[in-house]
Automatic annotation (TrEMBL):
Protein name: Hydroxyethylthiazole kinase
Signal sequence residues: none
Gene: thiM
Pathway participation: Cofactor biosynthesis; thiamine diphosphate biosynthesis; 4-methyl-5-(2-phosphoethyl)-thiazole from 5-(2-hydroxyethyl)-4-methylthiazole: step 1/1
The protein's role, per its UniProt record: Catalyzes the phosphorylation of the hydroxyl group of 4-methyl-5-beta-hydroxyethylthiazole (THZ).
Length: 280
């Protein structure tokens, strides 16, 4: 494994943010009602445009207008599964990159099978989940509890190198970038790995921060640099969470503060506040 030098990293982040500002990319999100509103607003907050159409009869038509397709397996339903497959098939035809957020796969055979088949058939550029969900996809023992990660699966500074190796092997086998969220987020394509130690435990107490990290990654994937997109999204979400937690009086103001912070965070903030664990 290797880590890029810092100049390349900074330039890639800058070019992604410039691309988003200049193109206001349309992000087609097929996701569940629990966090759909937050995901749509998150996409808007960072200067992109969301479309949440999921009906199987129209998903392919809508995705053809999009820059990126993000599918999220939370609260899965038959019509959304079909919508995801039809949209992904069209996305493949058109060269539109795909992100899959494997919500709940650690606790559901249905979702694990669906995710496996979807990844084999449509080759998403980014495979995302919390650490338990990614462990389940990798065939490793996993201690997820519903849609939450199990404490035993959390990646920390001490376990980052081992996790990067395990997730990197899966990423390389699927020619994808893996983004595993948690206290340390892991981003790897099997060649490069970065651990992002930014964030706060408060983020895990607001439902959908993982889903929001998924669509934020999708926004940045519009610049066709999926590894950098995932690192940048994890850093931005972590730093926005840190800023929101400093001001919050409780979970209500944290929720609002998170949106304030993510819509205002700059590359200069990210570069100053980033806490990356590098493999070299
Ligand atoms: N203990 C922690 N310390 C710092 N940051 C954390 C911690 N736990 C989670 N995060 C951050 O919270 C965000 C969401 O990650 P998490 O792993 O909780 O997602 P998730 O389980 O998929 O969430 P959800 O299912 O509610 O969408 C990420 O940005 C992650 O870095
Ligand atoms: C709480 C919950 N249940 C299914 S999805 C979801 C949101 C977090 O992924």
């Amino acid at each position: 494994m290797k880590m890029e030098n810092e100049n390349n990293l900074y330039e890639s982040f800058a070019s992604i943010l410039r691309h988003v500002e200049e193109t206001k990319p349309l992000i087609h999100c097929i996701t569940h009602p629990i966090t759909m509103n937050d995901c749509a607003n998150l996409v808007l907050a960072v200067g992109a445009s969301p479309n949440m159409a999921s009906h199987p009869e129209e998903a392919a038509e809508f995705v053809s207008l999009a820059s990126v397709l993000a599918v999220n397996l939370g609260n899965i339903a038959d019509d959304r599964m079909e919508g995801m497959q039809r949209a992904a098939a069209r996305a493949n035809e058109l060269g539109i990159p795909i992100l899959i957020d494997a919500v709940g796969v650690s606790c559901s055979t249905l979702r694990r099978r669906f995710a496996h088949d979807f990844i084999e058939a449509y080759h998403p550029a980014v495979i995302k989940g919390n650490s338990s969900e990614i462990r389940a996809l990798c065939g490793l023992d996993s201690h997820g509890s519903g849609v939450d990660a199990g404490a035993a699966d959390a990646v920390t500074a001490d376990t980052f190198a081992a996790a990067a190796g395990e997730f990197g092997a899966y990423a390389a086998a699927h020619r994808a970038v893996v983004l595993a969220s948690g206290p340390v987020d892991v981003v790897t394509d099997g060649v490069r790995a970065c651990g992002i130690a930014n964030g706060t435990p408060v983020l895990a107490k607001l439902t959908g921060t993982g889903c929001m990290l998924g669509v934020l990654t999708a926004v940045y994937m519009s610049a066709h640099k999926p590894w950098h997109a995932a690192v940048l999204a994890a850093a931005a979400m972590g730093i926005a969470g840190e800023q929101a937690a400093q001001e919050a009086k409780g979970m209500g103001s944290f929720h609002v503060g998170l949106f304030d912070a993510i819509s205002n965070v700059t590359l200069a903030d990210i570069w100053k506040e980033k806490r990356f664990l590098l493999i070299q």
